[in-house]
Amino acid sequence: MDTHGFFLRSQIQLDESTGIPPEEAEPVVQALARGDLHAAPVPDRLRALLRVVETITRCAYRTSDEDIQVLRDHGWTEPQIAEMVYDTAMFAFFNRVADAFGIDSEGYGGPRPAWDAEKTRTPEDGGPETPAREVNENANQKRPSS
Amino acid sequence: MPRIRWIEEDEATGEAAAVYVEDMTANRRAFVPEILKCFSHRPDFLRQVIAFSDTLHFCDGHLSRAVKEMIATYVSGLNRCPY
């Protein structure tokens, strides 16, 4: 999260390929790093792509034909959609390895998101009963589970 | 410190040392990122992991590098992965 946010801030920049003006780059990076697409000021076409990134990340089996058709309707090509899937899946892999080994941010800038403190607290010292990620997942279910 | 030990730059020998030197040389830095050191017990696989991420992520492809970094940031945010 911090590493790639750092790359976005320092090396890559949100160039014209994203349709995001430079003054909105920082709010976009911060919102995405919090997992909050709703708060990220991104163009509709990119938002559609990131919605599917979210579905694949939270619950890949829920990805539907309609989800992919929405991307085509926004002008994303088949090779672009496929590459989004590869990149999304690759970061699921790296995130799991990083968390299992217990590596943390290397101090790349930006404020620490609230969940970073929460996940180390237990209900006894004021932490949530249910980890934030599970609450989010339940709140974002698109269909009832069967 | 990681909860699973990895091989540090100054203790690497053999294949692990060779991959570390290749990575530091290619990226002109004096350290190996922690995410790569996680793979140091399988230096043959580490070399493939580096190739895999360079080929897919750290370049413009069908998607631009910038869009791919947004995907990486968002996935890691959703997964609550601080790294």
How does this structure look, described?
The complex is a heterodimer of chains A (146) and B (83). Chain A is mainly α and 146 residues long. In chain A, 56% of the residues lie in helices and 0% in strands. In chain A, helix 3 packs antiparallel against helix 4 (65-73) and helix 3 (44-59) crosses helix 5. Chain A is globular. In chain B, helix 1 packs parallel to helix 3 (43-56). Chain B has helices at 14-27, 34-37, 43-56, 65-78. The mean pLDDT of chain B is 94. Chain B has one domain (9-78).
What does this entry show, briefly?
The complex is a heterodimer of chains A (146) and B (83). Chain A has helices at 2-12, 25-33, 44-59, 65-73, 78-101, 114-118, 132-139.
Relative helix content of chain A? 55-70%
Strand content of chain B: under 5%
Beta-strand segment tally of chain A: 0
The termini of chain B sit apart by 13 Å
Rg of chain B, please? 14 Å
Strand content of chain A: under 5%
Count of discrete domains of chain A: 2
> Average pLDDT across residues of chain A?
78
Query: Structural class of chain A, please?
Result: mainly alpha
Oligomer: heterodimer
- One letter per element, helices H and strands E, the order of chain A comes to HHHHHHH
Poorly predicted regions of chain A are 107-115, 117-146
Whole-number total of structural domains of chain B: 1
What are the secondary-structure elements of chain B, in order, as H or E? Answer: HHHH
Protein chains sharing the most extensive interface? A-B, 60 and 37 residues
Largest sheet of chain A: none
Question: What gross morphology of chain B would you assign?
Answer: globular
Overall structural class of chain B, as computed from helix and strand content, comes to mainly alpha
Task: Work out the helix count of chain B.
Answer: 4
The rounded distance between the terminal residues' Cα atoms of chain A is 32 Å
